Every structure is written in C-alpha cells, then in structure tokens.
Amino acid sequence: MSDSVLGALISAVASILIAILNKSTSSPEGARGPKVPSTHRGARQTPNTPETHREIQQPSATGWYISFGVLLVWMALTPALIHHDLAGSNFFLIPIVAIILALIVPIPPLKAVWLCFAMFAANFVIGPLSNRLHGSMYDRTFISPEMPGETEKMLTFVLSLAAATAVVTYLICFLRLKYKRHGTVEYSGRTGVGLTAELEKLAQLRTAGALSEAEFQRAKERLLASFG
Questions:
Q1: Which of helix, strand or coil describes residue 86?
Q2: pTM of the model
C-alpha cells in the first residue's frame, strides 16, 4: 500500500468517525434551538423563552458544501491543466478556505472538522489521479515511493496539517457560534419582543392554568425588571 493511499484512508476514517460523532450528538431539539421548558402547572416560565428559542437556529452548511465542491473541482483539474506540482500544493489551500469559511459562515464545529478531513482525503487521491490520467511523468502519487526515508516524513507532515486545520477550524466555529448565540439571546430578551406582548403571554398562561397567581406575579416582576 502506498503512503498516498494510507494518507487517504487515515483522513477518510477520521472524517467518517467525526461525522458519526457529530450525527450522534445532534438532535431535533438542537437543530431548532434549546428545548422550551414545559408549561404545565407549577413549571417556572422565563418570560422571553419562546422568542429567544425561535431566534437560535442551527447554522446551514450550504456555503461550505458549495465552496468545498468548487475546491474539489480545482484540485481535480489543476494538476493536469496547470502544473503537476499542484497535486501537492493544493493541500495548503484547504486550511485557507476552511478558516475563511469558519470566520464568515460558522457551522457546528464537528461538522466543520469532518469536512476538513474529507477534503484532505480527497486530495490524497484526486491530485495524483489527475496527473496519472493526463499522462504526466511526475507526481503520479503524492508521496513518491522513489524517495526512501522521506515518505514517512511527508505523510506525517500532511496528516499533521490536516489535524491542525481541523483544530483551528473547530475553535473558530465554536467561538463564533457561542458569541452569535449570546448576542441573539440578549437581543431577543430585551429589544426583540415588546413588553405589552410579553405581558399578554403571561396573562394567557395564567388563564390557561399554566401559571399560578404567585408565579404570574413573580414572572411579571422579572419581566418589568428586564425591560427597565
């Protein structure tokens, strides 16, 4: 087995495992935002909870899919059409594109991680394949077997680059989403919903029996204080 194939397999396995982990940690409630507390009698209600939860949405990864799709086409064509060295140089494009996307369009961190590993796995294969199909004498495998003692170093370097890209992208997405959600909650709780509308909702909950008179008064006081 060539080191290029080994690198592709390692990256692909990492991508699949993280994708499974991302799927298992996701839930319908997470896609819609945090779960709204029960409204049965005796349950405490936060006055701005319904509006706040509707504001928090799971970000879409459409921009990532489109951008990485374009990058895949670039990685498949450029070694054959521009220069054979791009089969290896294109690895350095993946971190650049991923970090830019994380800054502009943050998505769930684990999803960003598995997408990054998937791109590295793809370039281990499609870059050299592009040169091979073009009939190039060079870079028909990213890590050449004619380089004794260097193949292991090159493989380690590229896999380390993939891991570093995944870590940095994870941190950027995590921090960007955390800041974004915090700002959304503040906006929704204080300025996005009118005081009158919130008081009406509390009154409806009391009428429906979801809030006792004492709970209604406490919720009303908290609401007035938050808009004060």
A1: helix
A2: 0.68
